[in-house]
Amino acid sequence: MRFGPEPLVAAGAVIAGGGYCYLAAGTSPFTTEADVVTAVPMAAGGAALVAGLVRRGAAEPGARARLWPWVAALGALALWELATYAAGFPFGRHAFPTVSSLYDEAARLRGLKALCFALWLALGFGLVLPS
């Protein structure tokens, strides 16, 4: 069985992505290093998104139908964050954890922080990937 370059490129991308996630997981929040490591995939994703819009046009049929689940999910997440934040005042943050506080707990372990970063990259990749 002979493999073409596609599986090798995909394997290389997965390995490089995993290394990048591990590198990102080693940074401390709100430092220049963390900002740079986070900005690189955001800039690449933004460039890919703009290139895709230019290539196929911003007014693609059915685009609004694919957008509403994202709006609903982000709205639900924002409501959850606000509700748990407000509910936590009399009892403390641990009684009603926000999504960000749950992430803070996970980010204490470098492997879990790398996994969270990888999921964030995968979500961004899924958003800019042509459908």
Strand-residue fraction?
under 5%
Distance between the termini: 30 Å
SS field, number of helical segments: 5
**Whole-number radius of gyration?**
18 Å
Mean pLDDT: 79
Main sheet attributes: strand count, strand direction, barrel closure: none
Q: Unreliable runs, pLDDT <50, ≥5 residues?
A: none
> So what's the overall shape?
flat
Give the oligomer, counting copies of the same chain as homo and different chains as hetero: single chain
Structural class of the helix and strand makeup? mainly alpha
- What is the N-to-C succession of helices and strands? HHHHH
Helix content: over 70%
Q: What's the structural domain tally?
A: 1
Q: Give the tally of β-strands.
A: 0
Structure explained in plain terms:
This protein has 131 residues and is mainly alpha-helical. The chain has one domain. It is 78% helix and 0% strand. The chain contains 5 helices and no strands. The longest helix has 29 residues, at 63-91. The chain is flat and about 55 Å long.
